[in-house]
């Protein structure tokens, strides 16, 4: 599948200018996860700390012909211990970015969310796909398609605010949020339409800040101004959304993967709402996707350092 390797070039260049930050990498024991971590160092956007079975990591590096001479390795016997140690590095202030390697997301996130030893905050943790689709003129942020399965209204509020905060950190001053459903009218039998209306009113009352919200909007009405006009929808968001807030994980995951595999979209992924940005990519994601995700995490982490605020 052909994807544009330079889709996130602007973000990579910004991250290089700001300089590398320490990044804890949990269990980078596959070709793509190790390459992705090493390339962040080669591009000057992170200083990866590899955490996992040392012998396995060194053997893999030899097989794929990459040098780890300048990269720190912390020897841990298995993936669970690696995830725990990576989170500990973050909690103790020794890493500004956290990256998932070749372990299951559930195993990784269990340590992130552990009460007392994890790195959760008062904000609900959520995932954002950042996608570059050739047919769309700007970055498209899709949330939440990886963590929250069937979010209730207040969880959607945090999901929305996390995505808005990410846009702010990337230089989008007032992102437009399309709250998706199957229809554009409020229909009590379809809960996502009622949630969409409530989220818009929450934004009116200052419970969600920094963006322009509209919904419910069906996907065609959100993306196409012509489709919205045909249906008589007057909206400040229709035709030009930055953020697509999906009803639940299944629809969001399918939407993101359809864009990836049918439209050859380039994608990156970031978890928001923790003490540091988390690079949470699929085990099947390629090294360029991990590199782009790390560049975005770098920009978030630098903003946190500059403002002193958790993003």
Descriptive overview:
The chain is an alpha/beta fold. It folds into 2 domains: 159 residues, Rossmann fold (3-Layer(aba) Sandwich); 150 residues, Isopropylmalate Dehydrogenase. α1 packs across α11, α2 packs across α11 and α4 packs parallel to α5. The longest helix is centred in the C-terminal third of the chain and has 21 residues. It is globular. The mean pLDDT is 93.
Key words describing this protein structure:
311 residues, alpha/beta, Rossmann fold, Isopropylmalate Dehydrogenase, 11 helices, 11 strands
What's the topology here?
Elements: H1 9-18, E1 21-26, H2 31-42, E2 46-52, H3 54-63, E3 72-75, H4 79-91, E4 97-100, H5 105-113, E5 126-132, E6 140-143, H6 153-169, E7 176-180, H7 191-204, E8 212-217, H8 219-223, H9 225-230, E9 243-245, H10 249-262, E10 266-272, E11 278-279, H11 287-307
Parallel strand pairs: 1-2, 1-4, 2-3, 4-11, 6-9, 7-8, 7-9
Antiparallel strand pairs: 5-6, 5-10, 10-11
């Amino acid at each position: 599948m052909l994807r544009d390797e330079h889709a996130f070039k602007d973000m990579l260049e910004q991250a290089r200018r700001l300089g590398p930050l320490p990044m804890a990498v949990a269990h980078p024991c596959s070709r793509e996860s190790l390459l992705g971590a090493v390339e962040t160092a080669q591009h000057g956007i992170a200083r990866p700390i590899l955490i996992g079975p040392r012998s396995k990591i060194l053997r893999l590096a030899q097989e794929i012909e990459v040098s780890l001479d300048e990269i720190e390795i912390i020897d841990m016997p298995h993936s669970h211990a690696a995830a725990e140690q990576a989170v500990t590095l973050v909690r103790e202030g020794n890493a500004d970015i956290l990256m998932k390697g070749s372990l299951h997301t559930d195993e990784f996130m269990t340590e992130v969310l552990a009460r007392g030893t994890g790195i959760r905050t008062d904000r609900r943790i959520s995932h954002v796909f950042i996608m570059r689709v050739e047919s769309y003129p700007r970055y498209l942020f899709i949330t939440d398609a990886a963590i929250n399965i069937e979010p209730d209204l207040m969880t959607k509020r945090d999901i929305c605010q996390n995505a808005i905060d990410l846009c702010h950190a990337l230089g989008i001053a007032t992102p437009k949020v399309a709250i998706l459903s199957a229809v554009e009218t409020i229909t009590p039998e379809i809960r996502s339409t009622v949630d969409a209306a409530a989220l818009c009113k929450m934004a009116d009352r200052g419970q969600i800040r920094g963006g322009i919200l509209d919904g419910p909007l069906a996907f065609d009405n959100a993306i196409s101004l012509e489709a919205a006009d045909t249906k008589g929808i007057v909206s400040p968001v229709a035709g030009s959304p930055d953020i697509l807030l999906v009803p639940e994980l299944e629809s969001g995951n399918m939407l993101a993967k359809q864009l990836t595999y049918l439209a050859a979209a380039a994608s990156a992924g970031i978890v928001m709402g923790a003490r540091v940005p988390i690079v949470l990519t699929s085990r099947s994601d390629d090294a360029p996707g991990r590199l782009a995700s790390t560049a975005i995490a770098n920009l978030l982490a630098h903003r946190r350092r500059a403002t002193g605020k958790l993003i």
